[in-house]
Here is the input.
Amino acid sequence: MKITNIKIFTLDAFRTNWAFVKVETDEGLHGWGECTLGTQEMALEGCIADYRRLVVGRNPLEIEKMLFETYRDSYWKGGPVMMSALAGIEIACWDIAGKHYGVPCHALLGGKMRDRVKMYANAWFTGARTPEDFAAAAKRTVALGVKALKWDPFGKAHLTLSREEMDDAVAKVAAVREAVGPKVELLIECHGRFNHYTAVNASRELAPFKPMLMEEPVVPDNNESLAWVRDHSVVPVAAGERFYGLHAWNDVLRRNAVDIAQPDIFHNMGLLTSKKVAAMCEANHVPVSFHNPSGPISNAAIMQLAATTPNFLIHEMMITDGSFRRLVTDENVKFEDGYLIIGDKPGLGIEVNEEEVAKRPYKPRMLRHYTGTLTDIRPKGDTFYFFDGLDRDTPVP
Here is the structure.
């Protein structure tokens, strides 16, 4: 079997643009991957075009060899664009391999250690601004059976927090904790906002509400700063979505810089390298929660990988999306009492409706992290998409 073509589809998902990759073969099999970045989409499309020359003609079942040689033959190493482009192709090859052998990808990645994963909800807070808004949204979400919530309460802060900004963030966390009670896990997202002393101060202020973790508390360009925060924080520190591959993770783990690792399968060149990163973390007794704020193919791929990862902790899921999500793929995520069920269809178990994708052409979307509009992630007047078992007709605020 040989790869005959690689296509990338960049489609508007309102809060960002998803990037789907299709790998086609001379035996009629095709595979789907995803490499959503959220920014730099045009560079990503160009990078896929560059790699097309290196990958067309290869055997898609020789994933390790293809990945090693393509990375070796790339003079410039690392970074989000290159690593994600390779990941999109690599994930699609795993999909092909599963279809070829008639088994789910988890059977090729070592087999299932579990048939379900605990889930934490992202994107449950659409439109929320005030502590009362967050509390009401949290209460509605937990009523669905969700047992863990993640969000960023820090508005548009960068590097430091004024007393007023700190008090506002604390009030939002306090309101959510009061609304959901003591048994629901709270995960605090920082989006790499802070310098080291602000991050530690924030951990002390939020500690009374017993958060499960603080995610990416410092700007992700200084592992010494991250390690210092981990040493001084009173809340467990998670990070990893902006670390690129084995060498970056080796440095992070050598410095004991994280309590919980959050590798992004795109930024680690796909499933195979992400599994290796998870094994490095396992050797250091660090649990893993793969970063997953992206589209349906990302979710399907990470579920397959999580099934096989001994030190897997908890799965991120965009619990809501625009109603369009149910149209662009045949995604069928099963939810039971705070857990997602691992699928057993061949490959990744997901197919894309290219006609529907074509109806959502690329639109430039600006980063919202420092504009105070982080919760504006769904189109007004739309209805939410929820996965199977949850109400699909809730109106967007």
